[in-house]
Amino acid sequence: MTVTAAPAPPALLHGVGDRALTWLDEHRDFFRLTDQDRTSGAALIERLKPIGELAINMQVLFREGVAGSHQHARAGQLLDFAWRELLDGGNVLAALQHDEPFSPVPLEVYACFHELGHRHPALEAALEVPRATGTWTALEMVPNRRLGVLNAERKMKLPPSADFDQALAATWLGRMPEPWSVQYHVAYDLTHTVFHVTNWGEAPERIPPAMADYLARYLPAWMDDWADLEHWDLLGELLVVDACLPRPTLDGGMWEQYAAAQSDSGAMPIQRGMPAGDPEEVFDLVHHPTLVAAFASAMATSRSLSADVPG
């Protein structure tokens, strides 16, 4: 349960992200694609997701301006590593786009790099072909995934393939139903809806006022639920949602619990404590909650240093 409602000190918030970034940098080689990944579309898509998430995190750090000079340099090196070595300058995405033209994954991953100044003209030309078809808009996907595609199009300044407000209204959060208790899939759907609406926290004002009020009312209880279960991955995502609200709590007690769960190495376990075993297998288990920790830290530190935080 929450110890105190007082906002967490910036040093605590920043420290979580600094340690997470250190771990991600030290384990960067585990992000590499294998030859087996490249021969299977499904495996490749699954392995591209963490690379896209890594880029998003570096973008958030740059955007929020909360990284010190050393942290900023490390983030830049990680981003360059992801683009040049992991994605071969975008060629990996272009090859996937050629093999699976109606997969939205190349667009979604590329959009973040594009926003940061990286370009692959051949990929951009290839993306236009499926987007000109009726199939692109007819693709069936869950509502918050549709928001992800629309946000990627928005990031690249492409004409939207659907109406954003209608897509938001079709999500669980968009309907603002009776609040859930502890339901895994609803939680992730909710957090990613907020991420896509705000472009990963860049524009919190895009959350409709009624939805922001709804989140502010129920978010503390949801965070308590997941903290009690020691599910640090979901708690981290909910802490990002908190930082996206007009009046974030940055609850000091909640952040103390979250920071205490982080390992000495900087990795964040997905639930309870750190797993043991083969380093590559451990990486597969904890890279996502560690990326979330870096994201939550950047957002919360930025809000803590702004005039919007009460206290």
The first-level CATH class is given as: Mainly Alpha
Secondary-structure content class: mainly alpha
Q: What general outline do the C-alpha atoms trace?
A: globular
Annotated CATH topology: Glycosyltransferase
Oligomer: single chain
Average pLDDT over all residues: 93
Strand content: under 5%
CATH architecture: Alpha/alpha barrel
Main sheet attributes: strand count, strand direction, barrel closure: none
Output the radius of gyration. Answer: 19 Å
What is the first-to-last residue Cα distance?
21 Å
- Count of DSSP strands: 0
Tally of individual helices: 16
**Helix and strand run:** HHHHHHHHHHHHHHHH
Number of domains: 1
Sequence stretches where pLDDT stays below 50 over 5 or more residues: none
Helix content: 55-70%
InterPro entries: DUF6895
Organism: Streptomyces gilvosporeus
Pfam families: DUF6895
Protein name: DUF6895 domain-containing protein
Question: Mind explaining what this structure looks like?
Answer:
66% of the residues lie in helices and 0% in strands. With 311 residues, the chain is mainly alpha-helical. The chain has one domain (15-304): Glycosyltransferase (Alpha/alpha barrel), CATH 1.50.10. The two termini are 21 Å apart.
Topology:
Layout: H1 10-26, H2 35-39, H3 41-64, H4 69-86, H5 91-99, H6 105-115, H7 121-131, H8 134-138, H9 143-155, H10 164-169, H11 172-175, H12 184-197, H13 209-228, H14 232-244, H15 252-261, H16 279-304
